[in-house]
Description:
Largest sheet: 3 strands, antiparallel
Distance between the termini: 109 Å
Order of helices and strands: HHEEHHHEHHEEHHHHHH
Number of strands: 5
Radius of gyration: 42 Å
Structural class: mainly alpha
Oligomer: single chain
Helix content: over 70%
Mean pLDDT: 77
Number of helices: 13
Amino acid sequence: MWYEDLDRLGDEIKRTVENAVDSRNFYSLNQTITNTVSQATEGIRKFSEQSSYKREGRSIPPLLFKRVKGIRIQGIVMTIIGAVVIGTLFLPLILSILEAIFTSGFVAVGGILLASLFGVLIIGGAVLLGCGIKLLKKIKRFQIYVEELGTKEYFEISKVSARIKKSAKYVLNDLSKMIEKKWFLQGHIDQQKTCFIASHEMYEQYNKMMQQVDMQRKEKAKEHARQMEDQKAREKLEPKVQEIIKAGDDYVRKIKSCNDRIPGEEISAKISKIEYLVDQIFDRVEQNPECVADIRRLMDYYLPTTVKLLEAYAELDKMTVQGENIISSKKEIESTIDTLNEAFTKLLDSLFQEKAWDVSSDISVLNTMLAQEGLTKKDF
């Protein structure tokens, strides 16, 4: 097993160093240690590839962990090797230094060479130890990221940064490196760099959602600009006209609110038509304030009654048991809505009567002029 290889590795490194010290032959020491470590690491790597990486008794999904198998064990190996090298060579290093200090001649030179060699090997061991510890810490953070995902395919970076007590910038950089190294095979960072997304499919959904949000934002900006223009135009109107238009907008909102409460498609379409017609009527009044007198009945009776009927329909429609009286009342209201749509259509059309006369007059004059110039076949 891999842990037996680790024990054998430590014994072999220790024996190699002791033999080199006893024989004063350090020529092949470094190469022997390197070969020993490589063989042990390769054996552990093969074992790890044949094993399923487990967490809390469950197999980790290949989506996240396919390229992480064995990395933890490699970190352990690096840490142990670094510690073994430092621990094994520290005492010989001290002895070599003392030998170089308190002896002379060839022995002192040998002590200096030994101290230099041991110093280099210990530095290498320290580097290996530091890299192993760093790798193990990184794997630990990776496991926290995976636990944060759970059954989801995304998590907020700020939430995880608080959990591991690191800055959001640190976590963002950490995740980016893990994605680059294929620890997360399908990992992505969102555009705002605030969220980690684990799968391609979820990232595509996110992009589509962001496109919709962007479109909605643009639409809201356009609507806001239009409202500001309308507001500026209304400020130039007389206070009485402004009051009527404001009341009209309130009625439109109430009609829309009632429509949102009524789920039926057919009745909803009829209410949407009322909403559109009423909105157009007040737009026309805003463009032509002289029309205010023509909508007096609309303001005093038609719209209040319309809203009252729609609210009654919404109340009836939400009743769990639809008895004969409820069904009859709803049909009667639906019929009345049809009548209202017809009436509002005629009212809107009448508000454009003056415009129609102007257009008709312009056409008549134009045709007469064309006929006088001999530019038409008909004699006007």
